[in-house]
Amino acid sequence: MERKGSAAAAAGNPSHPAVGDGQRPPPPQCVPGGGLGGVPGRGQVGAATEAAELIRRAHEFKSQGAQCYKDKKFREAIGKYHRALLELKGLPPSPGERERDPARPASPAGAPKTCRLSEEQSKTVEAIEVDCYNSLAACLLQAELVNYERVKEYCLKVLKKEGENFKALYRSGVAFYHLGDYDKALYYLKEARSRQPTDTNVVRYIQLTEMKLSRCSQRARESL
């Protein structure tokens, strides 16, 4: 754990607010699969309505979390972002989600068919997840005692979905740095720099990381 002095730098440049601060348009409605003659069955319509409502609530909780973050109510913001993610867990897996997350439980035999999310809706769900995990990492970095293991976990979740996400790359580097894994820290920080070469926070952490690696290398040579 590190004190807030370290976390202040890790929080990032003010020009890069936590993802999720901005308001996205309302989520699209769910499009159920067709029933007999192309007409959705009653169960499918109910599933479609439920899925659309879950996405709407998730979007609302995320927006509330963004407002709490702006008001510097970080503990409340964390609760809102977690609630948004919880709402999304009730949705069927998006196309390809089963392959990416084989541990996700399958629907029990005999369970009613759930609404099939449209491609647009799947993108909306993924955007909410990315915003929430990025913003959770940003909130944790404001704590007096920063849980860098959790920051790393959230950032890697973002990168699993958006491998070139600048904030997640930068914060992953910061987290690995404070966890003492300087090789991984340098990798993620350099990836972040390749996207925003002039970001002073990234440049400073790269310098700090290279200094740590140099000292480690020097101590290794002296021990021989």
TrEMBL record:
Any one GO CC term of the record: mitochondrial envelope
GO BP: bone development; negative regulation of apoptotic process
Record organism: Jaculus jaculus
Family listed: Belongs to the TTC9 family.
Keywords: Phosphoprotein, Repeat, TPR repeat
Source organism superkingdom: Eukaryota
InterPro entries, sorted: FKBP4/5/8-like (IPR050754), TPR-like_helical_dom_sf (IPR011990), TPR_rpt (IPR019734)
TPR repeats: 166-199
Record-level Gene Ontology MF annotations: protein folding chaperone
Biased amino acid composition, Gly residues: 32-44
Region described as Disordered: 1-44, 89-115
Official protein name in the record: Tetratricopeptide repeat protein 9A
